[in-house]
Protein: Transporter
Organism: Brevundimonas basaltis
Amino acid sequence: MFRTVLTAFAVAAASLISVGAALAQGAIPEQREFCADRPGKGAATCVLDQGVVQVESGLVDFASHRDAAFKIESWAVASTLIRYGLTPLLEVQVGLTPWQTESVTDRQTGDQDSVEGVGDLFLSARRALGNPDGSGRSAAIQGYLTLPTGSDAVRADGIEGGLVLPFGLPIDHNWSLALTPGIDIVRDADGEGSHVAWGMVAGLGRDVGDWNLGAEVWVSRDEDPLDEVTQSTFDLTAVWSPPFMANAQIDFGLNFGLNDQSPDLEFGVGVARRF
């Protein structure tokens, strides 16, 4: 299964990149400013130009959580999202994490259990509702599905999906406000059914020279019938986009848990490149 999923993902990635490169040679007029989904938990309002491919990858992501009984740590490597501009107002996305692992350590005995493998396949479509370049007052609607194609140890028990409605609002020439409400249908913890989860991301961003600095608050409520969970984090982001990288960025994220059910600490480093 691992090799099959990786092969399919590699073929899809190569196909989209080759199409984007071929179209790029045709000198797409007045290409929109570079706009990435990364970093942060909110979704962007921008849509890629028609025929353009963009690859966004989390080089490494880490999360840690401790309570009186257990220590939980997780790592993800090369979590990759490929975006393709289908029309001037619509883009499609495909994503996959080639390798992820989670370990649970009993703090009393020192015993440790861990799982690892390839993640599930992510499919999504986003349509701009206003200002598809993400500038000014902008909005979009995005639906997505997660298919349980990953390794047995880490994949979901069935198909999951959701819908988000990202909004963007400039405050002045430097500051901007972003809101991303969303709702998900996810599998129950016992694998016997599905339930609703919902969330909200609210963030402020500011341009400082070649950098964009951001702060977000994320809240998520999972209505699992076996164990309802509310999580919340305070997230800091930094994106470096110097003039000589007009079609790329390097980004960083650092998240702090705001309640006992959230990861204590998360960090990640990633890149994005437009073709």
The mean pLDDT is 89. Helices lie at 2-24. The first strand starts at residue 53 and ends at 66. The radius of gyration is 19 Å.
